[in-house]
Amino acid sequence: MYSKDQLEQWLEQSKTLCSSGKTADYIPALAKANPHTLGITLFPIGSPPISCGDESAIFTLQSISKVFTLLLALMDHGEEYVFERVGMEPTGDDFNSMLKLELVPPGKPFNPLINAGAITVTSMIKGESLIQKWERIAAFISTFLGEDEVRFNQEVYSSEKNTANRNRSLAYFLKDVGVLEGDVEENLDLYFKHCAIEVDCRQLARMGMILAGNGIDPVTSAQIVPKRYVQIAKTFMLTCGMYNASGEFAIKAGIPAKSGVSGGILAVVPGKLGIGVIGPALNEKGNSIAGVHLLQKIASAWELSMF
Ligand SMILES: NC(=O)CC[C@H](N)C(=O)O
Q: Whose CA is nearest to atom 9 of ligand 1?
């Protein structure tokens, strides 16, 4: 049904856009990525994955990890607790904006997929120590990958940690108003760590395929995450997952997606398939310029929109 030849043609067309994008440079290690990389994997539920382009390129999850820390926080505490501390609304602002934090006392972040919200969610992850919390996040994500452990990019992690003045200000503000739990630097460290988990397109598509199937592990048939929490995550992906381009992406593609500044995009076609894309050249909103184009093409041509 999903033709690889067709996918290859579309990928070549989208690839021409790479030269008009720019790799993220506020995290210096991310600036080194090849802007001409473009790869994709489609992972249908119950069928083998279909990949093309630079499908084996390895990249860090960055903001895509926010979906999974949200799921884990929901499993740790339940809906009520989580949404007392982070909201459910899109901001329309940049992902690292601090603009709205002072607007709604006491500084409750608008949603869990912007940086302020994600750092708050990270602070909710249960564990006796920073190491134990990290091990829980890594183990949770490795289940989605179908691996025993996750790969981790030390260089990207250190690069972000050494330059994260904006995230530091967000986190200290959140601590000041009593929204962030625990030690600020420890929480930031955990946040930078989960952003630096590495995947390739196939692994990312597998993560999406599990979300598409409402949290069921395709190998063991185990329910990895309660269906209700997967539903919440997918809803946030649709309304807030592509930063302040989420509305446009919902109109043009109509599927839940989450992007990261590494150029990765995780997309989900509910009930059908997961998609993993990498294209490090970003547009002005911080989304993969060629990746967005390719996903929109696939979604409209194959009528994948949920609507
Ligand atoms: N949009 C993103 O991918 C942002 C993630 C990145 N680690 C940051 O906090 O800035």
A: 115
Integer CA distances (angstroms), 121 to 114, 148, 241, in order: 10, 25, 15
Residues 6+ apart with CB under 8 A from 244: 90, 91, 92, 93, 94, 95, 285
Complex ipTM tops 0.95: yes
Which domains occur in the chain, in start order?
4-62+198-301 (3.40.710.10), 64-195 (3.40.710.10)
Residue among 157, 261, 266 whose CB has most ligand 1 atoms within 8 A, to mutate: 261
- Strand ordering across the sheet containing 197-199: 59-60, 197-199, 151-152
Per the annotation, does 261 bind a ligand? yes
pLDDT by residue (tens digit) across 9-50? 999 999 999 999 999 999 999 999 999 999 999 999 999 999
Chain segment 39-80, per-residue pLDDT in tens:
999 999 999 999 999 999 999 999 999 999 999 999 999 999
